[in-house]
């Protein structure tokens, strides 16, 4: 299963009596009804860890591109109308700024490791606090209340998985708690953010900018306001889109399928 | 008015410092530059008028290193291309259009390991990159170890192994056209060239040729020669695998402030006859 296709519903499962396993690409399994699959005796696997570094890399790429206005800058540099580069054209500094990571799992932690090298101050919010040594290694401060993170961060990066608890985690209230100079970076799932509230917040300068690898739906309808805002960078869900990683994901999925068909323990089984 | 001028704070290469200007300002004591690069100044000419010069090397290092990393990541993950795909009215694209290169674990070759180059190494290390560097002189062992960098005495060795070649030297007669046809051909066909130094450090025509014929994979340039590039059909403006940014290496609110602080420190020191924190002497 790549990019959530085909849609796995009751109809499909009923029509495939000999289906033994669904191997899903990537780590997210929010698009699968695990109870339904289980009721049909179908096993599920994903590719959890191999995507982590590429996704963390992309989170950093989006933060840097947004703060330094890379896409806008490129457009200016190649535009036929540009005669000179204005002296007062400025971006925002990443080094030394405060990064708030919402969701400190494998991916969130890798983002923290990278951000530390940029001398960023790192705050994080997570269901549970990380061990002291893990926190010290990246200089991260735990924010038990998400409000504290939102109020202090220059960059808010979402790295949670999508669950009923994280659905619309970032809504109007959360966006209003953020600094007006802050940027929201989403590398988790579109539905973690109340998208309409985000559009409003961006249009009314409640926050400064957003960089989104994920939206709801994907892709967005072509007349969607997010596609037109100058202070938004959107990428087409490329968190794990590197040749090397895709190759390994394919290998892992094949391994899981072969094990599933042979009745052996399945690597990366999702229970 | 011209007799009153004792200091010039040079903002973005203006005013142009030539013999005429220097002759018209008899009491000029110091010129402070808003950045680290001094290649736009005739150092010997200025010194001959007994005018001191200063740059702002500390203020620029972090933001320029950040810009280098931003370009490296944007190039590797095809950020500009895929953003346009994401917002385009045409929704047709295939996997091949969006697949990028894995940065973590790749090899970064840094040419010029000064303040900025070293800050890049610090950042790249956190991405688990393997780091090679080429420099006029070798860094101390502890400095190398702190970032896991391997010295390449010959630039060829760096060029042959790197997945990303980052150019971070200052422009001098020795570094003019440092990266030419020969150097580009030594690079891997999958490698990307990132230039955050000066346009003239790269032989631009050779670069265009190399990109068009697949000799190297991509380029990301914060600097070109000239800036901006001429609009009429310059090939660099049209290549899909090239990102160009408008010399934004130091252009952040914070760094602009810090540059001005550093410039003012130097100006006050010069006017008070004290040692200047970042005086630049004609070599």
TrEMBL record, chain A:
CDD domains: GDH. Residues 2-270 form the D-isomer specific 2-hydroxyacid dehydrogenase catalytic domain. Gene3D superfamilies: NAD(P)-binding Rossmann-like Domain. InterPro entries: D-isomer_2-hydroxyacid_DH, D-isomer_2_OHA_DH_cat_dom, D-isomer_DH_NAD-bd, NAD(P)-bd_dom_sf. The keyword Endoplasmic reticulum does not apply. GO terms for cellular component: cytosol. Keywords: Oxidoreductase. The keyword rRNA processing does not apply. One of its GO terms (molecular function) is NAD binding. Belongs to the D-isomer specific 2-hydroxyacid dehydrogenase family. This is Glyoxylate reductase/hydroxypyruvate reductase. It comes from Tachuris rubrigastra.
From TrEMBL, chain B:
It comes from the Eukaryota. The keyword Nucleus does not apply. GO terms for molecular function: glyoxylate reductase (NADPH) activity; hydroxypyruvate reductase [NAD(P)H] activity; NAD binding. Signal peptide: none annotated. Residues 5-280 form the D-isomer specific 2-hydroxyacid dehydrogenase catalytic domain. One of its GO terms (cellular component) is cytosol. InterPro entries: D-isomer_2-hydroxyacid_DH, D-isomer_2_OHA_DH_cat_dom, D-isomer_DH_CS1, D-isomer_DH_NAD-bd, NAD(P)-bd_dom_sf. Residues 69-249 form the D-isomer specific 2-hydroxyacid dehydrogenase NAD-binding domain. PROSITE patterns: D_2_HYDROXYACID_DH_1. Gene3D superfamilies: NAD(P)-binding Rossmann-like Domain. Keywords: Oxidoreductase. The keyword Metal-binding does not apply. Belongs to the D-isomer specific 2-hydroxyacid dehydrogenase family. PANTHER family: 2-HYDROXYACID DEHYDROGENASE-RELATED, GRHPR REDUCTASE. This is Glyoxylate reductase/hydroxypyruvate reductase. It comes from Tachuris rubrigastra. The gene is Grhpr_0.
